[in-house]
Specification:
- By secondary structure, this protein is mainly alpha-helical.
- The chain contains one helix and no strands.
- It has one helix at about 5-95.
Length: about 100
C-alpha cells in the first residue's frame, strides 16, 4: 500500500471538499471507510482460508517426515548395536592372531 503523508491527505481533503461540497463529503467518507473495512475483513478471511489449506497440505507431509525420522533413528541404533556386537565378537580373534615376540 502506498505511503500517504499528511500533506497528501490534506490535499485529497481539499479536492474532495471542492468537488463534493460540504453536504456530500461526510457520506462519501463514510462509504470509503465501509469499503476499506469490508476489504480488510475479506483479506483476513482469505488469509485464514489459505492458512487452513496450507495446514491441510503440510500436515500429512509432516507426519511422514516424523515417521521417517523415527525409523532412521531406530535403524541407526540397530546398526550401532550390531557394530558393537561384531567388534566384541572379533576382539578375541584379533588378540589371539597377533604374533608374540620371541626373545633371543
Amino acid at each position: 500500500m502506498p505511503d500517504i503523508g499528511m500533506i497528501e491527505l490534506i490535499l485529497i481533503g481539499i479536492v474532495g471538499f471542492l468537488v463534493l461540497g460540504p453536504e456530500r463529503l461526510p457520506s462519501f467518507l463514510a462509504q470509503i471507510a465501509k469499503v476499506v473495512r469490508e476489504g480488510r475483513l475479506w483479506m483476513n478471511s482469505l488469509k485464514m482460508q489459505l492458512e487452513q489449506e496450507k495446514q491441510h497440505l503440510t500436515q500429512p507431509v509432516q507426519q511422514i517426515k516424523e515417521e521417517v525420522e523415527t525409523h532412521v533413528q531406530a535403524a541407526t541404533s540397530d546398526i550401532s548395536q550390531v557394530k558393537e556386537e561384531v567388534e566384541a565378537a572379533t576382539q578375541p580373534i584379533t588378540d589371539d592372531s597377533k604374533p608374540e615376540k620371541k626373545d633371543t
